[in-house]
């Protein structure tokens, strides 16, 4: 599945593939200082371990087939530029998911992440038929806070020691949007409309 908006033809979202290994590694290495403060880490004492890219993609693809995770690559003009990952997809009477994202610093500040997140959320609402999407952001992450601000996603709470990030349990601000709040045109229209 590919997600794109005709108004920004250079921005494309597609599934993460094994063939992305080199570009993914190079982008992550080049942006290590930029990304590490916001990266999830494995808590001490956990039985989980760091994994190879191949194992990561296989795990995410397996979860995607089960409908619990959707990993998307952000491409800008055909170049690997980052990732948007949908996690914790819940069906039944809840119908919600969580979204996380990161971008190569070279592409930051150009409106690419808000558009990518909007494309994913619209897809989750209109194709997957979810009702609610949540985003958790560290209070210090001004770039990610700007994304939810641009999308008009409301803050719903504060979660102390919510996720293990950069080696510690970190507090997060919680944001959420429901399908009713996006209006009939969705979040992409909101982003493109300014």
From TrEMBL:
<dbReference type="InterPro" id="IPR051531">
    <property type="entry name" value="N-acetyltransferase"/>
</dbReference>
<dbReference type="GO" id="GO:0008999">
    <property type="term" value="F:protein-N-terminal-alanine acetyltransferase activity"/>
</dbReference>
<dbReference type="GO" id="GO:0005737">
    <property type="term" value="C:cytoplasm"/>
</dbReference>
<dbReference type="InterPro" id="IPR016181">
    <property type="entry name" value="Acyl_CoA_acyltransferase"/>
</dbReference>
<comment type="similarity">
    <text>Belongs to the acetyltransferase family. RimJ subfamily.</text>
</comment>
<keyword id="KW-0012">Acyltransferase</keyword>
<feature type="domain" description="N-acetyltransferase">
    <location>
        <begin position="11"/>
        <end position="180"/>
    </location>
</feature>
<protein>
    <submittedName>
        <fullName>Unannotated protein</fullName>
    </submittedName>
</protein>
<keyword id="KW-0808">Transferase</keyword>
<dbReference type="InterPro" id="IPR000182">
    <property type="entry name" value="GNAT_dom"/>
</dbReference>
<dbReference type="Pfam" id="PF13302">
    <property type="entry name" value="Acetyltransf_3"/>
</dbReference>
């Amino acid at each position: 599945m590919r997600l794109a908006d005709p108004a920004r033809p250079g921005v494309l979202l597609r599934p993460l593939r094994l063939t992305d290994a080199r570009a993914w590694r190079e982008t992550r290495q080049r942006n290590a200082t930029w990304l590490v403060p916001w990266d999830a880490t494995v808590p001490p004492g956990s039985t989980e371990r760091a994994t190879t890219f191949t194992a990561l993609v296989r795990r995410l693809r397996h979860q995607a087939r089960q409908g619990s995770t959707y990993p998307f690559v952000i491409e800008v003009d055909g170049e690997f530029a980052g990732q948007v990952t949908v996690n914790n997809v819940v069906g039944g009477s809840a119908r919600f998911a969580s979204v996380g994202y990161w971008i190569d610093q070279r592409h930051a500040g150009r409106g690419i992440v808000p558009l990518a997140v909007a494309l994913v959320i619209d897809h989750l609402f209109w194709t997957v038929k979810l009702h609610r999407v949540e985003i958790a952001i560290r209070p210090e992450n001004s770039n990610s806070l700007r994304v939810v601000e641009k999308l008009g996603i409301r803050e719903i709470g504060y979660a102390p020691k919510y996720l293990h990030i950069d080696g510690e349990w970190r507090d997060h601000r919680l944001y959420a949007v429901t399908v009713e709040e996006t209006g009939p045109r969705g979040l992409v229209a909101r982003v493109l409309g300014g």
